[in-house]
Structures are given as C-alpha cells and as structure tokens.
Design brief:
37% of the residues lie in helices and 23% in strands. The chain has 295 residues and is α+β, with helices and mostly antiparallel strands.
Length: 295
C-alpha cells in the first residue's frame, strides 16, 4: 500500500437488480492486508486514470449522494455513519436500476480512504459479482440477522478486471470550481476508447455534471491549439501546419480525446505548455464532443 494512502473502512453490499434481490450489510467488510493493499492501489489507479473525468454536483439533477457524503462528514466520518450512508447509497442505486437488464448485475463496494493528513475521500465501486479475481464470503455474526462479508483478492491480483464503474467523492477541503468528484466507467472504456460514463450513473445516481459546456470546450480547445501552433510555427515546422489543419477540420459530433490529440500532433517538449493552457480554460475532461458555435 502506498504510504500516503490509508483505508479507513470498507463495506460491500450485494445487488441483483435483475431478480429484485438486494442484500445490505450492517457490518464492515473484513479484508486481510493484501486485499486492503489491492483496494488502495485500485482506488488510486482509477481516480488518477487518464480517462477518469472530473464532475461537480448539481442539486437540480439529484442531491442524494452528495447529501449522504455531507452527513457522513458532519458525523466526523464515524463507523456507524459510514455504514448508514453506504446502505442508503446502495438502496438508492438499486431503486434506479431495478429491473433494468441493460445494466449489468454487480456488487457495490464503498470505501473511505485518506491520503496523509487530508480529509477522507469516499470511493463507490460497482463490481462484477465475485469470481476468479476476488472471493467474498458471508461471515458468522453474533447477532442473528446481522450481515457482513469477508473479502479476499486471489493471488494479490488487482480488481481492475471486475470493476464496472467507479466514483470518488472529494472532501470539501479538496474540491475546486470544476471538481467535486471523479468518475470512471470501465465498461464504457471496454466498449469504446474513452467513451463517457453511463448516464444513469452520472445523472440519476450521482447527480453531477461537467462544469464547462462542450461548446465552450470546443471553442477553447480549438483556440488554444491554433494560437500555440501559430506562435511556435518556426520551431514546430510541419507540425504547426498539421495542428492548424486538424483544428479547422473539427466538426459537430466528433469525439475528441484531448491527451491522444496532444500526443499525436503537439511536439513533446511543448505538450505540458499546451495542457496547462487548456486547464486554464477549464478543459479538465479528457474526452468531449465537438459542438460548434451558435450561428
């Protein structure tokens, strides 16, 4: 486990929304050190992954999940508050996807983790049901009717192959104008390179949106790259012409992979400069769809 990251609590709930079966834990999930290390590693990798996207909460869409985090913070991130919030969040997701066979069945794992002395992040991981990569087992409890699980990864393997969707809610102290949380949809990436996360997960469940509009992203992306290419024309040579031509060819509906475009078109020594210029324009999403200016 990276020294700067520690896992405070983890809990797993079982969802089979195809058959209307929801099994809520009322005790923390027990994980050995190898499994805790793997979870921390996976959370870090997913949150920092190139195609993970920053979002902000929008109460006009839904404020349920954001309110659960706020209640957890108000309770000083206590164990009881974490268990209660995890149950409420799982029930809410279950109610949204219940009976929808277009959404894959999966367990929901929630973890509270912190880095060094920062306030805790809340991780929400929608996972494939237990199989070859990890094993879960129902534990014997002292109180009849109580439910808790043990979790163990096999051979120290990471969980990347079984993760469907991930959300990482930042503490208030680490939020910015363009980021309250970070979302990664593994299934979308498997279906198509860099595809945006499923709308049910972003809209109905998390209640979030990208702060800057795709029309603004298009305008700023085209403007920044064209401007820098012209300013660096003598140094870039034919690369400058290629960038200007590519920006002129952007058309409505085109999917733009920001990092891939910079890697293909911008000379390596100036990629950090261009990326910084884009971030100043609030282009923090790695993928966007071209929307031209209104005529």
């Amino acid at each position: 486990m990276p020294a700067s990251m520690s896992l405070m609590y983890v809990i797993m709930h079982l969802m089979d929304h195809h058959n209307d079966v929801l099994t809520l834990s009322n005790g923390l999930t027990i994980a050995d050190q190898t499994t805790q290390d793997a979870l921390c590693e996976q959370m870090r990798e997913n949150r920092n992954y190139t195609y993970a996207q920053p979002f902000i909460f929008d109460a006009t869409i839904s404020d349920f999940v954001s309110r659960q985090y706020d209640a957890l913070a108000s309770a000083m991130f206590s164990q009881d508050a974490f268990i209660h919030a995890s149950q409420a969040i799982t029930q809410y997701l279950f109610s949204i996807i219940k009976g929808n066979r277009n959404v894959s069945v999966g367990d929901l794992l929630l973890g509270l983790f912190r880095e060094e002395n920062d306030d805790p992040w809340l991780a929400i991981l929608k996972m494939q049901p237990a199989g070859d990569t990890y094993i879960r087992e129902r534990l014997t409890t002292k109180t009849p009717g109580d439910i808790s699980f043990g979790l163990r990864v096999t051979s120290g393997a990471l969980l990347g192959g079984v993760l469907q969707k991930s959300a990482f809610i930042a503490p208030q102290s680490l939020r910015t104008d363009v980021r309250d949380l970070i979302v990664l949809d593994q299934q979308a990436l498997q279906r198509g390179h860099g595809e945006s996360a499923a709308r049910f997960f972003i809209d109905q469940f998390l209640g979030c949106k990208i702060q800057i509009s795709e029309r603004e992203m298009t305008r700023h992306f085209k403007g920044v790259l064209t401007k820098v290419a012209r300013e660096r024309a003598d140094e870039w040579g034919v690369a400058s012409e290629a960038v200007i031509e590519a920006m002129a060819d952007l058309h409505e509906g085109m999917r733009v992979d920001v990092y891939d475009t910079l890697e293909k078109l911008v000379p390596a020594q100036d990629r950090p400069l261009v990326l910084a210029a884009l971030q100043e324009k609030r282009i923090t999403a790695p993928i966007f769809t071209v929307v031209p200016p209104q005529s």
